[in-house]
Write a structure and sequence with these properties.
Blueprint (H helix, E strand, L loop, with lengths): L9 H10 L3 E6 L2 E6 L4 E6 L8 H11 L9
Antiparallel strand pairs: 1-2, 2-3
Length: about 70
C-alpha cells in the first residue's frame, strides 16, 4: 500500500521536482512544464502559488514523474 499524499502548494511541488532532477521547460499561463532528461518523464504543474493542489492533481504529478508518494519531499 502506498503512503498518503501530503497536501502541497505548487511552489512546494516545484522544489520536489527540482530535487529529483526535473527542470522547468516552459510556462503558459498558469501551467508549468517540467522535464527530466535522464528519465524522459514530463509533467505539467498548475501554478497557483497560494492554493493547495487537489489530491488528484498531486497523484497525477507523482505518477507522471515516477516519484513515489513517500519521496514527495525535498
Amino acid at each position: 500500500m502506498s503512503a498518503r499524499l501530503p497536501r502541497m502548494r505548487a511552489n512546494e511541488v516545484d522544489k520536489v521536482l527540482q530535487c529529483h532532477g526535473f527542470i522547468l521547460i516552459s510556462q503558459r499561463g498558469s501551467h508549468q512544464k517540467w522535464r527530466n532528461e535522464a528519465t524522459a518523464k514530463q509533467v505539467i504543474v498548475p501554478y497557483h502559488e497560494e492554493r493547495q493542489l487537489p489530491l488528484g492533481t498531486l497523484h497525477h504529478i507523482a505518477e507522471g514523474s515516477g516519484i513515489p508518494h513517500e519521496e514527495l519531499h525535498c
